[in-house]
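Severity: low
Component: inverse-folding endpoint
Summary: output formatting inconsistent between runs
Steps to reproduce: submit the following structure tokens with default settings.
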């Protein structure tokens, strides 16, 4: 099934949608980094908030990224996958989560939270990765402000994001090749 989906993406120009769900901008920026790396690798990429996407027509492959809050993927990412489940199941899809406010995402592969794992299985995702997160010192909102007193910082690893996207671009060009550029962390399991 994965091979069939990947073969569909073999065209002259592959067009990828990077759909993201972010609350405070950190995940949106990761999505932009992915889009930029895909374009650098010769893949046509659009980066859009998941909540604004009503059709996947015209896209050969999709990346869905969502921030983690209180152990859950952002609702816009969850609803996007639910809404577009059939269309996603027909395309190669990669998922990412962002959140940990420490170096854990740098140090080892972090499994998707339950809802993301379920979504990955449902659509036959090619892979999932968890990237570190960012919380600004002056974050708004009661919980965020409380957390920021102890955990403010930027743990996003732009190099890891870029190599993950580069692996994806390579995979889209040559289905069957490794879908990740960061072995051991940004792995292919859903
Ligand atoms: C109230 C609150 C709850 C959070 N819960 C989680 C969590 O369950 N898991 C996690 O990895 N990160 C968690 N985080 C960290 C955020 O995911 C991180 O700050 C993220 O990068 C924010 O992304 P955004 O700027 O796109 O909203 C939490 C942050 C806040 C403020």
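Observed output (run 2 of 3):
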């Amino acid at each position: 099934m994965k091979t069939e989906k990947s073969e569909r993406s073999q065209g002259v120009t592959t067009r990828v949608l990077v759909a993201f769900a972010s609350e405070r901008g950190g995940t949106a920026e990761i999505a932009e980094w992915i889009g930029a790396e895909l374009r650098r690798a010769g893949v046509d990429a659009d980066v859009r908030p998941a909540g604004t996407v009503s059709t996947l027509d015209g896209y050969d492959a999709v990346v869905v990224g969502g921030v983690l809050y209180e152990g859950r993927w952002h609702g816009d990412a969850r609803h996007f996958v639910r809404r577009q489940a059939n269309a996603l199941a027909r395309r190669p899809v990669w998922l990412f989560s962002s959140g940990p406010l420490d170096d854990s995402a740098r140090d080892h592969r972090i499994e998707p939270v339950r809802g993301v794992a379920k979504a990955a299985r449902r659509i036959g995702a090619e892979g999932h990765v968890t990237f570190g997160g960012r919380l600004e010192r002056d974050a708004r909102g009661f919980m965020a402000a409380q957390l920021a007193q102890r955990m403010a910082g930027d743990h996003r690893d732009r190099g890891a994001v870029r190599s993950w996207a580069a692996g994806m671009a390579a995979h889209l060009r040559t289905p069957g090749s490794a879908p990740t550029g960061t072995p051991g962390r940004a792995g292919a399991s859903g």
